[in-house]
Amino acid sequence: MKVVVLRPEPGASRTAERARVRGFDVLLRPLFETRPLAWEPPDPARYDALLLTSAAALRHAGPGLDALRRFPVVAVGPETARTARDAGLEVILTGDAGAATAVARARTHGLTRLLHLAGRERMPDLPGIEPVTVYTSEALPVEPGWTARLGGRTALLHSPRAAARLAELVDRDGTPRAAIRLAAISPAALAAAGGGWASGRAANRPDDEALLALVPRAD
């Protein structure tokens, strides 16, 4: 019941608290820090809804978001939906299986012109979706040898980028991948970590509840 939380703050602390409440031994070490970028809202007439794939987009959107508040929101998962509602936006659709599925469901509801408030470092843009970059996620330094602490733990992977970064650090330090389990927020995140781990499973929906359910209850 040992996990390591790698996602950026403030989400890292929320995930860590959820894990501790469930009795997990938590090691908290964000691998990235999100920061706002300057941006200008595009012409609202071109869109009929906002696509949100990360709560970080809302935290960092700043005053530019005001020009887009009239649009309904398509959220990739429950956490992003909660953040959107807290920001005073109307969420009309919440996905449970990644961005592509959320977009497909939006189109069945007649929402075909989606504006994606996005991070600079992201997966390839979906066809027909127009992104506007509002934040960046920058890698934090990790001291050599740190990954030796991960033996016997399950790494919680909230993004493909975090998965790839973990693999890079483990290989840099010479830490055996076979000593670490993976629990990923999506199949894409799990695939980004590559092979050779003790085990690897992807959640059936993109939220912490599903992610933590993948963690073995005992070593």
UniProtKB/TrEMBL annotation:
Pfam families: HEM4 (PF02602). GO terms for molecular function: uroporphyrinogen-III synthase activity. The lineage of its organism: Bacteria, Pseudomonadati, Pseudomonadota, Alphaproteobacteria, Sphingomonadales. Residues 14-212 form the Tetrapyrrole biosynthesis uroporphyrinogen III synthase domain. This is Uroporphyrinogen-III synthase. InterPro entries: 4pyrrol_syn_uPrphyn_synt_sf (IPR036108), 4pyrrol_synth_uPrphyn_synth (IPR003754). It comes from Sphingomonas lenta. GO terms for biological process: tetrapyrrole biosynthetic process. Gene3D superfamilies: 3.40.50.10090. Coiled coil: none annotated. It comes from the Bacteria. Transmembrane segments: none annotated.
